[in-house]
Amino acid sequence: MRIFTFSLFLFLGINAFSQNLKDSINWLSIEDVGDKFAEVQKPVMFYFYKQNCDSCREQEKTTFSNPEVANYINILFYPVKIDAETKDSLMFFDGKYYHNSKETGKTHDLVNKLAEGDTFPSIVLFSRQASGRAFNGYKDRDEIFRMLIYYADNVDTSTPFDDWYKYHKKGYPAGQSQIMTRLKIKWKTLEEHKEANKTTPKKTLINFYNYNKVSCTLMRTQTYNQIDIANYLNDKFYSVNIDVFSQDTLEIMGIKYINENKSYKYHQLPIAALEGKMNFPAFIILDENGKVLSKYQEYMTPEKLEKVIHYYGEDFHKKEDFTTFMKKFKSKLNTN
């Protein structure tokens, strides 16, 4: 699949044709999206269709008419719908006009630029950083969520799509909302951690869990739960899981934190630990004395997390930088 990276763009003079089918997406004009994106950066979803395309009709009749899918798109994306065979001239962000030229057949030149091949429907998704990718062909509820969550949860900033797809498919197989998984990590409360660390000091991994983020759940059920990762953390670390919306009073290093129940709803502890940058998934690693060694705010596959926990778990951070360590690290994961 082709990947695009470019700046914020504007299209002018578009009067895209509409198919007769009504779906549940609140489609926006491109002019509106340009204005909205300038104010609030949300991912953008372009949907390219053709009038006489059975798969396009099915896409709108089933997937886009599914309330679960439609609500997710309407809330978290700027959705735009364009007839791939429109005769209108479209002006791209650099001021260049694209046309429906005879040399390229019936498909508009701009659609040919963004969508890969001549397969429709075609969905092109762009991140908050205006980096995008084309996904061609009909997508059902399960498939489209793998694509949408990747951009809505900012997973695209840290993980290749194919790696995300692999673990999302394991955690959310077709037809199921989520695999019910027995957690292999011995998660502790802060109080349990405090008592355990008195007698047997270890490094600590504190995971800040945001149940509104699918990527956070996927890390709990797939990344942390990978057997080699879980065994290593149980051996070398104390693992603490904290609900970022917790209503409990939490104490760490002699300081008590509460949830002030302000508009953002986050507990004081994750706010303090993450320095107010509430991007998830997120975890921090502490040494045996409670000193913060590192902070991570990104989705990680087991392959990526393995390097991080071995780097700190075996004190390589005291000897060399992480880049040097990664060059010679040999994975021990059994990913079968």
CATH topology of the largest domain: Glutaredoxin
Task: Calculate the terminal CA-CA distance, rounded to whole Å.
Answer: 26 Å
Helical residues, percent: 25-40%
Spell out the CATH superfamily of the largest domain.
Answer: Glutaredoxin
User: What Rg is obtained from the alpha carbons, in whole angstroms?
Assistant: 23 Å
How many domains? The number is 2
Apparent shape? elongated
Q: Total strand count, please?
A: 14
Low-confidence stretches: 6-19
For the largest beta-sheet, the strand count, sense and barrel status come to: 5 strands, mixed
Number of helices: 12
Strand content: 15-25%
Q: Strands of the biggest beta sheet: in what spatial order?
A: 1-7-6-2-3
CATH architecture of the largest domain: 3-Layer(aba) Sandwich
Class derived from helix and strand content: alpha+beta
- Written as H for each helix and E for each strand, in order along the chain, the element string is EHEHHEEEHEEHHEHEHHEEEHEEHH
Q: Write down the CATH class of the largest domain.
A: Alpha Beta
The overall pLDDT, averaged over residues, is 88
